[in-house]
Amino acid sequence: MNVPALILAGGLGTRLRHLIPDLPKPMANVAGSPFLYYILKHLQIQGIKDIYISVGYKSEKIQEYFGNYFHSSFLHYIKEEEPLGTGGAISYAIQQINADNILIINGDTFLNFDLNQFIQAHQNENLTLLLKYVQQSNRYGFVDFENQYVQGFSEKSEEIRNGWINAGVYLMNKKFFLSTAPQQKVFSFEKDYLEKIYTRYPIKVFTINKYFIDIGVPEDYERAQKDFSELKYLDINSEWTLFLDRDGVINQKLDKDYVKTIEEFHFMENVIPALKVLRKKFGRIIVVTNQQGIGKKIMTERDLDTIHQYLLSELKKENIEIDKIYFAPQLEQENSIMRKPHIGMALKAKEDFPEIQFHQSIMVGDSLSDIQFAHNAGMYSVYLSSAPEKYFNYDFTFRSLFDFSKCFAE
């Protein structure tokens, strides 16, 4: 099932107005990027090609920043000329989306969900809610369910308890919603629709216990700054793969030259402790490196193999394993699929390690071609630089591999 996504980004964000007085809430700065950036990235790397953004308050801020494309996804804007409430916004927007089923997401919340799993749960359903388990909270109302279907909704109360909450992510059949939604123009999706419709029609739930945050209140907005700068929101574990460039990431680059011998190969400062931390966190570490020095006949493949055997043996002494090293010897002008920013090396890695999922992968590099490689393959990108240029359009930036590894230090 191919689905487009609709992001509700038209709210006024009154509780954050003192922190972001001139921006719509989804454009609030979180760890150096608009909060909406992280939502868009999460959708794009999971293969959603068409993303619709329902905009209202200060809509020009969103359109000016993102334009009509987000990497490989097309962005479409649907503007509310007046506030319609969450239900009214959905009703107005989906009439302009040509699809049977649509993914709906609130623009001020982030939930790390797997789209394919969610789609599988929604097969042949009219409406599926994504639920997140929270502990010790009185901030949310809770959803009661049995056998994967909604049995009731409880109001917010002073009581602190554990339970399943509506995470603001839905898969919806368009015809079903339009035929059962209230006829008024302005209404709440939660109060005026969900809390009434479940008694007449079965509403499926899909439960998840992944990272969730709602930046609608100042304390969680502040928490998001740390969580997103340290990549905590990605829930990285042994299912993830780390792709690394070599020169400038693992070893020192030579100015206007190529590392041709072991004597010219020098590890970057603190790269050994960094790799020790990263090896424990990621299920696989793959090196992908352009080596056109071979194509220029400055060095041979045998020279490169000697260097890589040295690299692997030195790391092995520290109990660090690199799963595999891939290299592209072609000249830049050949425009080979194997050479970054093309993704031939990534595809070869997936062929050798079928468990690799690109949407659960991070590429770390120090050049534009590394960042483009990540985006072309549908990975997250980390740009290493002491003075990063934002036009590279990277997802994260750190000064070194060691600084990046601090995100995962125990």
Keywords:
20 strands, 6-stranded parallel β-sheet, Rossmann fold, 13 helices, 8-stranded mixed β-sheet, 410 residues, alpha/beta, Spore Coat Polysaccharide Biosynthesis Protein SpsA, Chain A, 2 domains
Verbal overview:
The chain is an alpha/beta fold and 410 residues long. It has two domains: 5-233, Alpha-Beta Complex (Spore Coat Polysaccharide Biosynthesis Protein SpsA, Chain A); 241-408, HAD superfamily/HAD-like (Rossmann fold). The protein has helices at residues 35-44, 59-66, 85-94, 115-122, 174-180, 189-197, 218-229, 271-281, 292-295, 301-317, 344-352, 368-377, 401-405; strands spanning 5-9, 29-30, 33-34, 50-55, 69-70, 73-79, 101-106, 109-111, 127-137, 143-146, 149-153, 161-173, 204-208, 212-214, 241-244, 284-290, 324-328, 361-365, 380-384, 396-398. Strands 5-6-4-1-7-12-9-13 form an eight-stranded mixed sheet, sandwiched between helices. Strand 5 and strand 6 (73-79) form a beta hairpin. Helix 3 (85-94) packs across helix 6. The longest helix is centred in the C-terminal third of the chain and has 17 residues, at 301-317. The model has no long low-confidence stretch (mean pLDDT 92).
Measured distance between first and last alpha carbons: 40 Å
- Radius of gyration, Cα only, in angstroms? 24 Å
Give me the CATH fold name of the largest domain.
Answer: Spore Coat Polysaccharide Biosynthesis Protein SpsA, Chain A
Proportion in β-strands = 25-35%
CATH superfamily of the largest domain: Spore Coat Polysaccharide Biosynthesis Protein SpsA, Chain A
Structural class: alpha/beta
Write the CATH architecture name of the largest domain.
Alpha-Beta Complex
Widest sheet, order of strands: 5-6-4-1-7-12-9-13
Q: Total domains, how many?
A: 2
Oligomer: single chain
- Average pLDDT, rounded to a whole number, is 92
By DSSP, the count of extended strands is: 20
- Fraction in helix: 25-40%
Largest sheet: 8 strands, mixed
CATH class of the largest domain: Alpha Beta
Number of discrete helical segments = 13
Uncertain parts: none
